[in-house]
Amino acid sequence: KLFFTDYGNAAKVERCDMDGMNRTWIVDSKIEQPTALALDLINKYVYWLDIYLESVEVVDYQGRRRQTITKGRQIRHLCGLAVFENYLYTINSDNLSILRINRYNGTDVQALARLDNAKEIRVYQKRPQAAARSHACEEEPHGAPGGCAHLCLLSSSYKARTCRCRTGFILGTDGRSCK
């Protein structure tokens, strides 16, 4: 799945399949300007910053069990969001510090370090990732991912895929080649 925020005409947090199909709103009320999003892939939670409402909130992948993690004026200066173990990590753009927020007790906020210029944050870990199961976009013996000439996008499950072409090309009638 692909998760994203939108604060155009109607602010929301959405999800869709990697090929853009099955677009679903998971948060569309009491939300104004969601600017950053992070996923807890293990427990299947979506965290986001709303700088207008000055809050950090969370829902599960279906948009249920919504909770406010923390709220207050300090949120309006935050940008970027990452989750790792018990904490959320973000950047305070006002004083360029990295903040660590306990995701279960939002009152536990600590400044970890200062940076010269940052707008986004990611957490990388040394721990090896679980092996990915085989999927429809795996490279075939001749090197084409999922048998697609240009792009292979996972669809509604790891067993389904949609082929797409780069800009300037049209998908062939076989659903795989690009002309």
TrEMBL record:
One of its GO terms (cellular component) is plasma membrane. Gene3D superfamilies: TolB, C-terminal domain. InterPro entries: 6-blade_b-propeller_TolB-like, Cueball_EGF_LRP_Nidogen, LDLR_classB_rpt. GO terms for molecular function: Wnt receptor activity; Wnt-protein binding. PROSITE patterns: LDLRB. SUPFAM superfamilies: YWTD domain. Pfam families: Ldl_recept_b (PF00058). LDL-receptor class B repeats lie at residues 1-43. One of its GO terms (biological process) is canonical Wnt signaling pathway. This is LRP1B protein. It comes from Bombycilla garrulus (Bohemian waxwing). The gene is Lrp1b_0.
